[in-house]
Design a protein that fits this description.
Strand content: 25-35%
Number of domains: 1
Order of helices and strands: HEHEEEEEHEEEEEH
CATH class: Alpha Beta
CATH architecture: 2-Layer Sandwich
Distance between the termini: 18 Å
Helix content: 10-25%
CATH topology: BirA Bifunctional Protein, domain 2
Shape: globular
Largest sheet: 8 strands, mixed
Structural class: alpha/beta
Number of helices: 4
Length: about 220
C-alpha cells in the first residue's frame, strides 16, 4: 500500500480554534501556554488551536542546536536565548515576524509527522502566494525558500515542531518585516550557504492582518490534503 493511500484524513468534523495575541508575547509565557494546551488536548479536554503571535527579540535553540552557531559577537547587543524542545537548531524571533504556533491533534490527522510537516510547508507556500511571494521547498533544507533576483536563495519562513502523545506544538515563523540584521547573531537553522529574507525585503507590502487572513484561508486545505 502506498504512503498516500495508507494515511487517514483529518476528521471532517474537526474544528480548529484561532487566536491572535495583541502585543509581544514573552517566550516563556508562550511555551507555558502551549504546554498547558497540549496536555489538555492529550487528555481530551481541549481541541486544536492555531495561535498567531509576535515575540520580543530573542533566539531559540532547538534540539539539534550547535553552540558554535550562536554568534552573539556579530550583533551590537546580545539577545536572550531560550532552549526549547522543538526540532531544529537556532532561530530568531522578533517583531515583524508572524509566529504561528499550531497545536494539532495527529490522532485525528493520520499519526504521520512527515505528512504533517509537509502540510505546514504547503500552508505557508499557499499563503505566501496570495501575497505575491513564490515560496518553494528544498530537499535537505527545512523551511520555505525564495529565489532572489541574483539567483541566490534565501529563507523566508521557518518550521520547527514538537510532538507529544501525538499532539503537536511550536510551528511556523514567517518573516513579514523583521529586523533581518538580528539573524547575524546565529547560523539560522544551521544553514551557512544561504541567507534570510522577508516579504518586505522582497519588495512586497503585506501587513500582519493580510498575512493572518491568508493563513486562515489556506489552513484547512493545506493540512487536510
Amino acid at each position: 500500500m502506498s504512503l498516500s493511500n495508507s494515511l487517514k484524513r483529518a476528521d471532517p468534523a474537526l474544528r480548529t480554534q484561532w487566536e491572535t495575541a495583541p502585543g509581544l508575547v514573552p517566550y516563556p509565557a508562550a511555551l507555558q501556554r502551549m504546554e498547558a494546551r497540549v496536555a489538555d488536548m492529550a487528555a481530551g479536554q481541549a481541541g486544536e488551536l492555531v495561535w498567531l503571535i509576535e515575540h520580543p527579540p530573542l533566539y531559540t535553540a532547538g534540539t539539534s542546536a550547535d553552540p558554535a552557531e550562536l554568534l552573539q559577537g556579530a550583533v551590537p547587543d546580545a539577545l536572550p536565548v531560550f532552549e526549547t524542545g522543538r526540532g531544529g537548531r537556532y532561530t530568531y524571533h522578533g517583531p515583524g515576524q508572524r509566529i504561528g504556533y499550531v497545536m494539532a491533534d495527529l490522532r485525528q490527522r493520520g499519526r504521520d509527522v512527515r505528512r504533517y510537516v509537509r502540510g505546514l510547508e504547503e500552508w505557508i507556500i499557499r499563503a505566501l502566494a496570495d501575497l505575491g511571494v513564490k515560496g518553494e521547498r528544498r530537499d535537505g533544507r527545512v523551511g520555505i525558500w525564495v529565489v532572489l533576483p541574483d539567483s541566490t536563495e534565501a529563507k523566508v519562513a521557518a518550521i520547527g515542531v514538537r510532538v507529544r502523545r501525538w499532539v503537536t506544538y511550536h510551528g511556523i515563523a514567517i518573516n513579514v518585516d523583521p529586523d533581518l540584521s538580528r539573524f547575524d547573531g546565529i547560523v539560522p537553522c544551521g544553514v551557512r550557504e544561504h541567507g534570510v529574507t522577508s516579504i518586505a525585503a522582497l519588495g512586497f507590502r503585506a501587513g500582519m492582518a493580510e498575512v493572518d487572513a491568508a493563513l486562515r484561508r489556506h489552513f484547512d486545505a493545506a493540512l487536510n490534503q
